[in-house]
Known about the structure:
The chain is mostly beta strands and 184 residues long.
Amino acid sequence: MQIDSTPLSGVLILTPARHGDARGFFSESWNRRTLMQAGVDLPEFVQDNHSMSMQVGTLRGLHYQAPPHAQGKLVRCGRGRLFDVAVDARRGSPTFGQWFGTELSFENGRQLWIPAGFLHGFVTREPDTEIVYKCTDHYDRASDGAVAWDSLGIDWGVEGPLLSDKDRAAPAFADWTSPFEVTP
């Protein structure tokens, strides 16, 4: 597995090897032992999610779950193509409010590890795009939150995205008080 760091401390791009032949390919998308041997110790995953967006330009985010149910996410694209974004929301972090984005697709096989304390969002680049992600905590409705997708200068590469009511009503980052802090 190829492991690449990003400008945001803790956010990683993981690209599993694909072993292919005339039938297609096989890929081990997650292996704790392989990552531990590479010096990457991710928390335990307790939930898998699968989301499908039918239209190009569907934007979901920027989402989070507040402590004590904050979630880390290992995100990959099962079908199609999307632009995936993590935003450092940890008060006291030297990169607080900064974002990193990368393309995840079925073709490139990349995964993005987003630790707890970061906002997460994505926009679809192809129709019928599927996103599959592992979470480090269970969904908790009372901890669920969102920050306005257009309040951090993120270049989503889309005008007039398809949004949920929740995402349309989300507060701007500057008007929001983050529940996350840098942990020693």
